[in-house]
């Protein structure tokens, strides 16, 4: 008998049995599978089969079959084996298939295949990916997802903006995706506050170091990944910037809180842009070359001038 | 970690795993065509028929004719009966559920995805159906910050579908110039937060990649084109040209993000703490602007003329402040 046939029959037998079966009973019923050879080698074969089943996610439970605990019985608990019924429309299952394929993630594709049996029809059409793989690894995303799902504390190496790698200990509160990047948001034990960590900057393995504290009341992961030309976090005030017509239309687009104040006769646009003291906004303005000018506040304007002079202008 | 126990070769467990998924689908959808089922589960027709051939001799004790699974294949369609115990698939493992939920959330946060509404309801059903025993607290603790859909996306999708040449007004970051071009758009895709269209640029007579949010206007031309089979999702975001020169830069620690953001070759970590990178570039305008932004955190090694150009741009910019 082929190993595959033996395994299929074993799953069918355990799923259909109303009571746990001892190895002796299994051996008797699956005579062709385990009856040949001596008992010990048959038992070893059964143990290996059991490992294979557990490995692919078949929940085999071992229970005592009598009050003296003398013999063990094996059972597959139906509630833990069967996928609950989830009905999907063809559009919904197709959307899930597109998402799984876009991530280039085999675990997600396996999940969709399991869910297919609850779909009204199959996938609408054979579709390709509409998004390239993102820059964090599937292993990292899944490990962090696990930690958030069960509120764990993690330790990992993190590449900082200055190029070094620092060890971080974080209670995993939530996950947020912004601009195509995934961020872990959690309580950073080294800094003593809630921080966000871009998953593509996590280096090396992620260690689960135990139970973490739950997030505070009213926690929202999205609040902690706010960012823009002003840097990371909530902006503190407004700056005034003039932009040439060739860049203004796309530069301001998509910046939360940016507003056009006036359009000058020459086509230049004056806008107010959220700002926090620091170097970020000056760098953003300089990245437009002579197509942008910092109008105020004075400290921002002076900073831009100082940086231009330092370049030997 | 101790050595894993001896196992049946991977192939057997792999086949078993897929049988426990394919068979329930076929029981739930009687009369599915062999070709359709094979395509849906990413199998060849032979693999599928092999698996079904094995199922045919499986069943329950005492394995008499009335105890075996009944597999009926007629005119290329499949009917399975006598296997009620296989009528539902195995539960999702935790990592499968997490992976799908997170990839789905990520795609639903991408603006302009036509599948987004269906995806949102599918994810809600998934979270509801699997419950906290599989997904834990995850559905409540994941946030997707949506950004806006670029205006030209819909018309470009239509043009891709209808194989129609379009005229676009485009701001190219590489040259910092806006120009009007006629392009044959072949595929629209999203990568790390931005939408791109891969197209044949009729004026340049070459393949080009355009960022959709930098297209200011799109006009239909009514002219049809034959697709050349340009690559979409997963391709490199930089299209090399024959005019490319190697630009060699040294990045101070604070400027290291440049090596992550742009496609670079041959990164070398130097003893003084800087990172030396080589960026292939056909135009230098975007590098002048990058140099203005980075200031002292960037040292230009090659080509030397770039240094002079950065000084000139700094002087022209400073003139606005005088």
Q: What is the CATH third-level topology name of the largest domain in chain B?
A: Arc Repressor Mutant, subunit A
Let me know the number of strands of chain B: 13
Q: Which chains share the greatest interface?
A: A-B, 126 and 128 residues
Return residue spans of chain A where pLDDT drops below 50 for at least 5 consecutive residues.
Answer: none
Provide the structure class of chain B.
alpha+beta
CATH class of the largest domain in chain A: Mainly Beta
Query: What CATH architecture label of the largest domain in chain A applies?
Result: Roll
Beta-strand proportion of chain B: 25-35%
Largest sheet of chain B: 5 strands, antiparallel
**Radius of gyration over C-alpha positions of chain B, nearest whole angstrom:** 28 Å
Query: Largest sheet of chain A, order of strands side by side?
Result: 7-6-5-4-8
Protein structure class of chain A: alpha+beta
Give the % helix of chain B: 25-40%
Q: Spans of chain B with pLDDT under 50 lasting ≥5 residues?
A: 1-10
**What's the pLDDT, averaged over the residues of chain A?**
87
Shape of chain A: elongated
Overall 3D form of chain B: elongated
The overall pLDDT of chain B, averaged over residues, is 88
How many helix segments of chain A?
11
Q: How far apart lie the N and C ends of chain A?
A: 83 Å
Order of helices and strands of chain A: HEHHHEEHHHHEEEEEEEEHEEHEH
């Amino acid at each position: 008998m082929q190993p595959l046939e033996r395994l299929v029959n074993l799953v069918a037998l355990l799923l259909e049995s109303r009571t746990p079966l001892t190895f002796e009973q299994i051996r008797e019923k699956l005579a062709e599978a385990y009856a040949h050879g001596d008992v010990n080698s048959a038992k070893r074969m059964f143990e290996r089969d059991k490992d294979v089943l557990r490995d692919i996610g078949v929940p085999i439970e071992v229970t005592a079959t009598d009050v003296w605990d003398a013999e063990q019985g094996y059972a597959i608990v139906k509630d833990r084996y069967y996928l609950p019924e989830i009905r999907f429309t063809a559009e919904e299952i197709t959307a899930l298939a597109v998402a799984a394929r876009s991530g280039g993630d085999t675990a997600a594709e396996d999940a969709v295949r399991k869910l297919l049996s609850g779909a009204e029809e199959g996938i609408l059409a054979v579709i390709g990916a509409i998004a390239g793989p993102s820059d964090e690894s599937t292993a990292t995303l899944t490990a962090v997802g696990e930690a958030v799902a069960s509120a764990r504390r993690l330790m990992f190496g993190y590449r900082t903006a200055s190029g070094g790698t620092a060890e971080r200990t974080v209670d995993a509160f939530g996950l947020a995706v912004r601009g195509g990047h995934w961020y872990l948001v959690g309580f950073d034990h080294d800094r003593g506050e809630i921080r966000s960590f871009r998953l593509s900057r996590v280096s090396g393995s992620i260690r689960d170091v135990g139970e973490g504290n739950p997030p505070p009341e009213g926690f929202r992961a999205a609040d902690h990944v706010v960012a823009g030309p002003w840097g990371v976090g909530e902006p503190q005030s407004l700056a005034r910037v003039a932009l040439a017509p060739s860049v203004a239309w796309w530069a301001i687009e998509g910046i939360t809180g940016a507003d056009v104040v006036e359009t000058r006769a020459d086509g230049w646009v004056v806008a107010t842009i959220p700002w926090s003291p620091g170097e970020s906004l000056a760098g953003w303005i300089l990245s437009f070359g002579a197509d942008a000018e910092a109008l105020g506040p004075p400290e921002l304007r002076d900073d831009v001038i100082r940086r231009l002079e330092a370049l030997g202008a | 970690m101790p050595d894993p126990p001896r196992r049946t070769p991977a192939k057997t467990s792999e086949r078993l795993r897929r049988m426990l998924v394919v068979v329930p689908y076929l029981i739930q959808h009687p009369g599915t065509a062999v070709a359709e089922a094979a395509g849906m589960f990413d199998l060849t027709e032979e693999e599928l028929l092999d698996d079904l051939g094995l199922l045919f001799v499986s069943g329950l004790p005492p394995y008499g004719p009335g105890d075996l699974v009944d597999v009926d294949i007629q005119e290329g369609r499949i009917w399975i009966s006598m296997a009620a115990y296989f009528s539902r698939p195995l539960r999702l493992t935790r990592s499968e559920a997490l992976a799908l939920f997170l990839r789905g959330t990520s795609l639903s946060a991408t603006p302009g995805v036509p599948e987004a509404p269906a995806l949102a309801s599918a994810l809600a059903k998934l979270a509801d159906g699997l419950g906290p025993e599989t997904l834990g607290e995850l559905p409540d603790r994941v946030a997707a910050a949506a950004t806006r859909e670029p205006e030209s996306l819909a018309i470009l999708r239509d043009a891709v579908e209808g194989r129609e040449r379009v005229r676009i007004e485009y701001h190219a970051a590489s040259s910092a110039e806006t120009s009007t071009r006629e392009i044959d758009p072949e595929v629209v895709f999203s990568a790390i937060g931005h939408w791109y269209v891969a197209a044949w640029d009729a004026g340049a007579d070459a393949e080009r990649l355009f960022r959709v949010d930098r297209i200011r206007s799109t006009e239909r031309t009514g002219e049809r084109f034959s697709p050349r089979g340009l690559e979409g999702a997963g391709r490199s975001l930089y299209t090399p040209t024959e005019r490319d020169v190697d630009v060699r830069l040294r990045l101070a620690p604070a400027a290291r993000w440049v090596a992550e953001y742009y496609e670079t070759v041959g990164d070398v970590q130097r003893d003084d703490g800087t990172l030396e990178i080589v960026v292939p570039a056909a135009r230098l305008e975007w590098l002048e602007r990058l140099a203005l932004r980075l200031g002292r955190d960037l040292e230009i090694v090659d080509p030397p003329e770039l240094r002079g150009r950065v000084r000139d741009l700094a002087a022209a910019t400073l003139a606005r402040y005088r």
